[in-house]
Write a structure and sequence with these properties.
The chain is α/β, with parallel strands linked by helices. The protein has helices at residues 33-42, 87-100, 115-127, 150-153, 156-169, 186-194, 238-249, 267-275, 285-290, 294-308, 314-317, 351-359, 388-392, 413-419, and strands spanning 11-13, 16-18, 22-24, 46-52, 63-68, 71-78, 105-110, 132-136, 174-177, 199-202, 206-208, 212-213, 218-219, 230-233, 258-261, 278-283, 337-341, 364-365, 377-378, 399-403.
Amino acid sequence: MAFGTSVDLTSNTGGIVTPNPFWLASAPPANSGAQIMRAFDAGWGGAVWKTLGTPIQNVSSRFGALHFKGTRAIGFNNIELITDRPLEVNFREIAEVKKRYPKHGVIVSLMVETRDEWRDMIKRAIDAGADGLELNFGCPHGMCERGMGSAVGQEPALNEKITSWAVEFSTVPVLVKLTPNVDEINPHGMAAKRGGAHGVSLINTIKSLIGIDIDRFVPEPRVGGLSTNGGYCGAAVKPIAMHMIGSLARDPDFGLPISGIGGVANWRDAVEFILLGCSSVQVCTEVMLRGYRVVGDMIEGLTEYMRSHGFSTIEEMRGKAVPQFSEWGELDLNYETVAKIDPGKCIGCHACVVACHDGAHQCIHPAPKEAATRVPVVDESECVGCNLCQIVCPVPDCITMAAVDNGFKPATWNEFVSEGKPLRPKKGAH
């Protein structure tokens, strides 16, 4: 490890250059010039202005959250729409922000309907000083019922058409914000590429119901006696975001820059997104819950990670994990691990025993009654290395998954089917 590496956090996403890869996502934290200037003072490298279009009237209430086993807001839901502030005010504030913070990135999110409206809004955004545009093709509620948002993002032909309009009218980079409310993301990323987009951002929020008021019998967030589906985000959506980002990043026909969104709550999340191909990451929910100051820890953590791993630029580390993201049929079926329990760390809680017997392959058992210990015993002849015991164990590093030399050469399912390569004997089948 090269601990002395000099680190440059400068990010370039499709031609949008920012001092670091941390951007505010288009949402309430990026709703006004005063907010964005405070965010830039806190250390954010860029901000995607809350979506501009014909100003709307929002409902009250607007937000809901998923709390789980004492942890608040692991998931977050909103039924808020685009800006409710006059366009003239928004454009004036964009100009003021760019005047005061010329080196920071101001990306303006847009959502309108007709070709003429796109031309007008793009010109006004660029005249105000926008460094880039983000086309909001992802809103899963309210706007999609009006023929915008995810109604566009779910239709590749519309995506391509409107993207081509924006690229035609724009003199700054155009990013397309993709909706996750589709079966496969790749056709929609390719549509943006055919339309001439300089990059994509994803994921937007996931169509959802966050919960039910079990006394009033009304979904949350409650607006009088009714509610509706909203957009789901926060830490809980990170695995979905990473899958969709990775799917595009490893597609050899795609190749556009990616701004990653969805569950980024700390520097480790940002590192994972960058290793999966992102050149910038956007944050919303964590800022709503913790404030702009969270970016300080993100910058510090990313800097130390890059220094310790010998990366001097974001581009050097971007996409390092992509070649290892494969299809199931290409995995080595002869690779084998078994659970190892450290007796010096085990507290004898038997969480692994319960999990293995009730939820896995019945290969971890209590110690014999005559033994002077509560450390469970692993039957390695039956252990399939599923990881469940390690996941439920409350003691860090108490259970490890150790690789086994079983004498079989690597063989994938595809190789077994096409070439008849031998596979190791099954375990855990009893």
